[in-house]
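Data deposition worksheet. Section B asks for the primary sequence of the deposited chain exactly as it was used as input, without tags or linkers unless they were present during the calculation. Section C holds the resulting structure in token form. Section D is free text for depositor observations; keep each observation to a single sentence. Incomplete worksheets are returned to the depositor.
Section A, Depositor: J.P.
Section B:
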Amino acid sequence: MALCMDGEIISESEVAPNRHNEIVLPMCERILAKAQASLDQLDAIAFGRGPGAFTGVRLAASVAQGIAMARDLPVVPVSSLAALAQAAYTRQKASQVLACIDARMQEVYFALYQLDENKIMQLTGREQVGKPELIDVEVDKHCIGYGSGWKVYARALLDRCRTDLAFDANVTPQAEHVACLAEHYFNQGLAVSATEAIPVYVRDNVASKPKKKKIG
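Section C:
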């Protein structure tokens, strides 16, 4: 959870598997208290819209929608992959990032990002999901790999990049980088209404189940 206010980002995070719905609102209250602010002072609500773990993405969207509707605020959806790329710039001054999240099913969510003149990571091409050994990207020698996909599929990803680039597999999308990007997007007029604040899964059929055979 993070708050961007007067150019400063106040954030708090906690690893709490299966407890996100219990801690998210109390965390929001603590951050507002630290900033001595209230929901009525906010210009917009931002959330990590995915791709990523489906339960987490749905929860983020529903909480953002709930607060936005209650306070009549616009919403700024931010890509989880973009948040990873922005983290790579913030932490390592990367100019190009291949963000990659483990999508299970032997696949990864991935996208290539390039730093612009405003120090914001911009998407090059599109967000995709696929087998790591089949992805097709062209990276430069300064590119950095970021995200959980590199933990499991580093060798395949490096083979596809055709270069031995550096990578960090122990990073996850963080609220502080979502907030940083959200401020920029908001100033660019990219906020949406609460009803338009929906998750982005990239993979269309992840929740599909085998069809039952009809008898008779």
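Section D:
The CA atoms of residues 107 and 131 lie 4 Å apart.
The chain is about 35% helix and 20% strand.
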